[in-house]
Fold:
Amino acid sequence: MNSYNRFYINIFLRIIFIVLTCILFVFLIGRDDYLFTSGFILFLILAQTTLLIKYVNRTNRELAEFLIHLQQGDTSVVFSKENIEKTFKGLRSSFEKINADVKQVITEKEQNEHYLNYVIDNIKTGLIAFDEFGNIEFVNNQAKIFLNRKNHSILNINNLDNEFIDVFTKTNVSESKIIKKSINDNLCFLAFSSSEFKIGSKKIRLFTIHDVKQELEANEIESWQKLTRVLTHEMMNSITPITSLAHAIKRYLKNDGGLLNQSEISNELLSDIVENADIIENRGKGLLEFIDNYRTITKLPKPKFEIVETSKFLKNIIQLFDNEILSKGIIINLNVIPENQTVFADKGMIEQVIINLIKNSIEAFAGITNPRIELNSFVDENQKIRIQVIDNGSGITPEVIENIFVPFFTTKEKGSGIGLSLSRQIMHLHGGNISVKSEPNVETVFTLIFTS
Structure:
């Protein structure tokens, strides 16, 4: 017989005894010569009932106290034999086991929290979280270093430098910003990335902060290396034939004894010299044009921003190609969502970018049946305006696509290689970017991304 059955039998016997006592009381209450005995029996009934209630509630009180301590995270409560009815010693053991398990869970939680805090405080990424009123919820040591508050507590973002306040208040969710900041006499390029989440009804903004100076320097070096290779290739294409032809002319006009006499220069030789001089002149003009293009991409003017009606703006650009697309059977579709969409940009500069992209699409239609161009403009999930130029032309191979934005890189026989590089610079001046993805002979998508 287990302890729980004993408990129920004990309760049953107590109730039977109370019932029998009540029957005896009812029997005696009607007799005048048993009034004192009846009173004693009534007292006995009340006492037994009180003891029964106390007996039943004793374990309930212990269980309630245990649950209250458990809710408050207090695992110091101890259950002795006196605390719980002996018949419930199994329950007491269960209480003690639960108590020990909870104590272990709390200890492990505290250890994990301590470990996590140690890791967060020692990573090289700055983390700062604050509510919608700017009150700091969390900030790690690296963030304090980046924010020039290493040895100070930060309670609100409004206590920071104005430059940081602007970043924290004006950076949209999922947007990134980079600022230059001198920290301990070291120039850092701090990249801020933002995300947002909710804890209950409280809205929290979380920023991660990285020093991307090394990455930027590595990218800059790689860009210079690519540019140097292209510049060297282009200049060698001009200088090598010029040198070779100049040497040939000198060879034509010299013999073993020195310069040829006028009588020794035949009309055929003279014709060759003039032809070589023409080639040298043309290559020289090409080199001058190359230098002029270089000056074009290094001296872009500042954008003159205005509010541009996207739909009307793109329709006007399409009209510029009406004759060409009609003669070549090209279909152009325009989709602007919403129709009243506007973008804050330099109208002339962005027009130059889109015209260049449409020209590239038309050139990619050689040998393509049913050529099609789509111009799409929409607002993405980050509230950024995107304008896409999509075509089903020959596309761009993976080997070429990583170099198409490098200045002077071109796969075209008569291309200058500055169109896409110029487009990227224009988008950077707008605080945006240009990206490309291509599946050769299927689809190529150029996307202009605006910050607002």
